[in-house]
From TrEMBL:
Name this polypeptide is given: Ferrous iron transport protein A
Pfam families attached to this UniProt entry: FeoA
Keywords, comma-separated and alphabetical: Iron
InterPro entries, per database record: Fe-transptr_FeoA-like (IPR007167), FeoA_core_dom (IPR038157), Transcriptional_repressor_C (IPR008988)
Source organism, top-level taxon: Bacteria
Species this chain originates from: Sulfobacillus benefaciens
GO MF entry, a single one: transition metal ion binding
Keyword check for Oxidoreductase: no
The UniProt record lists the keyword Glycoprotein: no
Ferrous iron transporter FeoA-like domain segment(s): 1-71
Amino acid sequence: MTLDQVPRGTRVKIDDIANVKRKLEAARLGLGPGAWVVVIRIVPRGPIIVRGEAGQLALGRQLAQEITVSVVSEGK
C-alpha cells in the first residue's frame, strides 16, 4: 500500500521509497524507512497532511504515491 491510499486517522510505518529522487526529498523532510506517520487530512486534489516524528507535514501526492507503508493502527 502507498501513503496516498491510507485512510485519515491511520498510523503507518514507512517501509520503502523506491524512487531515489523521492527518497532524498523524503529524507529532507525527516521521513525514511522505519519512520511512522499518522494521516491527519487528505485534501482533495491536494496534499496529504501527516504527523510524524518530525512534526506535521504536507506531502505532495506524487511523493505520497512513492512511499510504501504498512498499517500500524487503523483510523476511525
